[in-house]
Amino acid sequence: MSRVILGVDPGLTRCGVAVISSSSSRKVSLISVDTIRTSPSMELTERLAVIGNSIELLISEHKPDALAIERVFAQANLRSVMGVAQISGVVMYLAKKHDIPVQMHTPSEVKAAVTGSGRAQKAQIGSAVAKILGLGEIPKPADSADALAIAICNAWRASSSPTSTSKLNTKAQEAWLNAERVAKRKP
After folding, report:
1. How many alpha carbons fall within 13 Å on the CB side of residue 158?
2. Is 143 a catalytic residue?
3. 3-162: which CATH topology?
4. Which of 34, 65, 70, 146 is catalytic?
């Protein structure tokens, strides 16, 4: 049985989106990949709408079984973090609206899944994605390759619940999930 996974590398100026198919034998194949772009000169609400509408079209067209998004823990650039958070919120809203389970993956988790190293560089990620999918060239820009890597990571982790714990979770993910559970119990 194959699953369709929509991977999103959230960003306000460049948002990588990728749709893959994954079989139970860990074989993945490319369905669609793109980078949605918005201009910093556009109003914020318009930028969010452009990206949201584009992602909703992908959802309608490909009917993904899962949506994977990169979780960013911290960045030095507050403006960049805000853009990522805003787009992540739009994507999670769309997933809920269309009843698609969401899983968030850390950058190091995604890098480790596709390259074997949580510290891989952008070029290594692009090369690994091209090799895994049997592509003749590295997807460009890097946002597209990153979205593919996020989708592949999700496919290979094969976890069906965003809050499930398993032997596949890293220590950092287990700590995050435990903190979320504790926060939910507080009145």
Report:
1. 13
2. yes
3. Nucleotidyltransferase; domain 5 (3.30.420)
4. 70
